[in-house]
Amino acid sequence: MVTTTDYDQIRASLQSVLSRHERSRSSLIPILHEVQDLFGHVPPAAIAPIAHRLSLSQAEVHGVVSFYSHFRLSPPGRHHVTVCAGTACHVEGTPLLLRELRRLLGIEPGQRTTDGLFSLSRVGCLGCCAMAPAMMVDGRAYPSVSPARLAAILAEYGFTPDVQTDEAA
Amino acid sequence: MCRPMKRLDQLSSQARAQWLALAQSHDPVVWVALGSCSQAAGADAVALAMRDELAARGCQARFVRTGCMGLCYLEPTAIVRKPGCARVVYGPLDENSARRLVAECLLGEGSCPDLAVGRLDADPPEDVPDLSDHPAMRLQVRRVMQHCGLIDPEDLSHYLANGGYEAFRQALAMPADEIIERLKESGLRGRSGGGFPVWRKWEFTRNAKGSQRYVLCNAHEGDPGAFSNRLLTESDPHGFLEGMLIAAFTVGATQGYIYMASEYPLAHHRVGMAIDQLRWAGLLGDDILGSGFSFDITLRSGAGVFVSGEETAQIASLEGRRGAPAPRPPYPGQSGIAGAPTLVQNVETLANVPLIVAHGGEWFRAVGTSASPGTKAFSLSGRLARRGVFELPLGMGLSHVVNDVGGGARDEHPLKAVHTGGPPGGLLPADIEVPLDFDSMGETGSLMGSGGIIAIDDRCCIVDLTRHFMEFAQDEACGQCVPCRNGNRVMLDILNRLTQGQGRPGDLDRLLELGNVIRLTSLCGLGQTAPNPILTGIRYFRSEFEAHLHGSCPAGVCPLAAPAESVAEAAAS
Fold it and tell me: Closest partner residue to B382 among A25, A30, A91, by Cβ?
């Protein structure tokens, strides 16, 4: 993944993505997918070059980016946790999972932890309804997750409980 | 015979020879189910454990990847065959039982009947019952799912060996009218929920004015609770691709698109692979098999918006715009992608097409009802004992499906309600007697929709659930029309108050009134159907709503009734 502090690199990487696509509006979403795969999000600095390439206004590109929940304008954490909010998962306890995730990570869906290690999002349905509630970390699915298992799952990705909490306990 | 046709013949006969060799292999063969569900359940670890155990004992076996059979509740599963024996399905496996399977069954004399689900062939072992007698399979009629879990979805030769692309070749020799006639005889209706007659859509698109035509396969499957198209695209991608080729040939399209849910990375990977294989085999591209018919397919990924499952919204998304629905008419068949006639069909609908071309309309009508012929792949989830995707004849009773296919309640908590049809559908009493088909389900106030069936027991609160649906509708609304944008917001506010114990007299009447207005006046299907869960919820479970008005939640879910911890404990136990 390309880090987004190196602006020359952003520009170079972006150009190589743009040059692979036809200069028509229908390329917009495939381009946004590739840009997000590359940077982990759609860097706001990328919007102007994309708009220019496709002869669109920046507002139009921004409108599309913000419409689709898959696209992010800010960088995700190093590990991205996706919680399924589908009906079957809701019935099997997604609200409790989300509450425990909020408690453990101290963030809301759409946010990133201050150390940059985790980000959290909620999606409509992962299609793992038979194994609800389902959760994904970096694309790996975890079936039938109970709130009690969460800390252990996150620990696989480097999660350590808050030091202060440890001392208090 | 032209050269490309000869090459396909050659590929098919090679494929059949390889398939036969696998079936008669002198080494043991292990087919490991690797779909999203199985991988989530730990299929990779099971396969590795089996390999390790074999290696440790100095033995070998052939490993074959497959998709999923649809028995998600038994994942991870594997099919094992010893030379001279039947293929036996085992599951749910873990690393220990996988090792035991190798030691006792593959290398020993046993058959591990305690781990077995059923056998696929008539050969021994006799102590394992036939899979077709298994309660999860007995009532199924496997048509579009016939290959699921049995073939390698990443290997075109497995599909070819099982008669793949024969129907397409047959279609190439048929006049388009005859193909449409066959669809008309079959009575096939769109499987995504609307139930529109397929032949009419095809005829309409074929006769629409325009030099360029498109076929768009809707693989978005946005409905939470429906995952049959995920299973089909992951487990047998060529099944619906063959239908897509026949569709394109019939309506005269030269370009196809597949719009895949961004939540389905494995399906995306496998369909992408299948398209590449088709190009390689000469089944996509210019002058396919020397027929003069040219067609190619582009795979596109959605971006996580429910309303993009609506056909006009999907087209907007393909064109690089916000995926918001447009008023119809014009229908896509008249003016779709870039204003050209576009045939939009979902995965399961297309997967039925090759079967109808090959076997005819009468064969298709042999199961199902006269107005809803054929089968439907239903996704069963929630508090059922058996969860997964089950292909059943249309018209089977809902409670029959819930109790005899789904196995009823998973534990001692009785089932209270069944939610069908995804967010546009509704909540029905668990014991309701209604045939599962396009028309009967509509009369209940719910829908069959894309076939999602979620069972709910007495630990779930109906009001909380309707609040959840409204929140979903509110999140996913595109914001174009007032009834859906503002009306749903007001409904959500009322439901939020109810679940917080702040209901007011008249709230239920207001919900019903608003719901009916939103239903009648919204622009697209999302808005028109968003109130359905609430309307059916009040219709069938009014007492639960009234209890909330009086400050109690019978299920003990809503914060007004029980401290949060006890809910957490109840769910964790």
Answer: A91
